[in-house]
Amino acid sequence: MALTDTALKALKPRDKTYTVSDDRGLYLEIFPTGGMVWRYRYRLNGRYEKLTLGKYPALTLKNARLMRDGASQMAAVGESPAQKKQRAKVAGPEDTTLSEFAERYFREIQQRDRKDNTMPRRYLDKDILPSIGGKRVSALEGAQATADRVRTLPDGRIRYYDKEALARTQGPTRGRSHVTEWSPTTGQARVWEETYDHSGAVNRVHPKMSDGEVLDLPHYPPTKADIDQGKSTPSGREINCSCRC
Question: In 94-233, which ranges are continuous DSSP H helix?
Fold first, then answer.
């Protein structure tokens, strides 16, 4: 029987770890400490694999099902969601470049699984690293693991919000939060910081990263420092903006 939000809220820890099932391989594991983790069990190439999705209640039932559906689509075309996540862990901290990630990937994954790495190595050194080797790896996995709040948009994009940090001084801003957005459809990940007024509405956004590439863009609406430093006009338009916005 599929789980409900009411049933989830009624769950209590026991002396031993136990699980409750939802549907199509999705289940919640409950630990004696009170922690709860979503996992997805699926079959690939005749073998069962298990994928950890995130912690409940930060990851809601609805969003856990969306992540299960995305992982299910990967498995349906022969790609292992669990192995993909494992490869992502190789990336390490947020300041890892794609070049550093590639070297660790070859050492810890590629060379272990394949005998002949001549062609992959050639493509990497000749075509890939010269153009994007300096870009930064996205911190998507870290955002999923530490999210204080998760929101799903109507088009399927998922936003992971860090715990709001309250403002240190009195003023129009209540606090700020680090936000990571992921699209299961396109695979695109973006990161920004947003601040809130005392009603909880967003009053300023500062782009930080897009698909692993660190951004250095002005706030919107711009701060006085942005304008004084020549990064933005009072209207919010970036100085020497090359786009057609």
Answer: 98-105, 111-113, 118-123, 129-132, 140-146, 224-228
